[in-house]
Design brief:
mainly alpha, Rna Polymerase Sigma Factor, Chain: A, Arc Repressor Mutant, subunit A, 2 domains, 77% helix, 0% strand, disordered C terminus
């Protein structure tokens, strides 16, 4: 490398480093806000420093992949990438016991059965009865599943990508995939719209308004632990109501994949 080109390379590297530092300083409050928001719903062994570090990596990835021609603001795009990076880091830790996953599935299946029998929203006492446990045991199951259900619900709500959010593979989605995503969005929106009012409000306050559990409890005049239970029950209810749609959709995808081009 010649002297002029070496100087040019060093200048470019220095400028890039300064740009990254400026980006981190500008959006550090956003990373911190998302980290503390998630921490309130995660087990005690998850450290805020780990979330912050993962979030900063997500911020830098957002800078690399952002396309302002897609219509989304950088802050909105970065927020999704930051949150996703934090959740990916938590998932790698594999901190959710299998028993918790089994409990979550049992709750969803119980809700599905009760609502199929009654044709109306499954109440806490009805779900507990279907599980053949006491109401206090049911609430304990909900509290134990709150962390795993947080991840599942966030994945559920973020499956459809907002305008400007490129797919991780950077490959264009096929027309079939786009159609299936649109149908899933419609099914999800309908399932959320049919939630009990209190559960729907918890979703709105947590995901749309960015309130933490304590703040939501103050709005609803209930304890923070009760908000945890409502959030977990809400996620289980959505999973139960979308299971039929998911099974039917997977079946149609398999049928279409068997067709050979003429």
């Amino acid at each position: 490398m010649t002297a002029p080109s070496a100087r040019k390379h060093a200048y470019s590297a220095g400028a890039s480093c300064c740009a990254q530092q400026a980006l981190i300083e500008q959006y550090a409050p956003l990373v911190s806000k998302i980290a503390w928001h998630l921490l309130a719903r995660l087990p005690a062994n998850v450290q805020i420093e780990d979330l912050m570090q993962a979030g900063m990596m997500g911020l830098l990835e957002a800078q690399k992949n952002f396309d302002d021609s897609k219509g989304a603001s950088f802050e909105t795009f970065a927020g999704i990438r930051i949150r996703g990076a934090m959740l990916d880091d938590v998932r790698k830790g594999d901190w959710v016991p299998r028993s918790v996953h089994r409990g979550s599935r049992r709750i969803s299946e119980a809700i599905r059965k009760v609502e199929a029998k009654t044709g109306s929203e499954a109440k806490d006492c009805e779900i507990a009865a279907e599980l053949d446990i006491s109401i206090s045991e049911y609430y304990a199951m909900l509290s134990a599943s709150r962390g795993s259900r947080l991840l599942s619900l966030e994945e559920l709500l973020q499956d459809s990508e907002a305008p400007g959010f490129a797919a991780e593979s950077e490959l264009p989605a096929s027309p079939l995939s786009q159609l299936e995503n649109e149908r899933f969005e419609q099914a999800l929106a309908a399932a959320i719209d049919e939630l009990p009012e209190r559960e729907k409000l918890v979703l709105s306050l947590y995901y749309d308004e960015g309130l933490n559990l304590k703040e939501i409890g103050q709005v609803l005049s209930v304890s923070e632990s009760r908000v945890c239970q409502l959030h977990s029950q809400c996620a289980a209810r959505l999973r139960a109501r979308l299971s039929d749609w998911q099974e039917a959709n997977q079946g149609s995808v398999k049928k279409r994949s068997r067709r050979r081009p003429q």
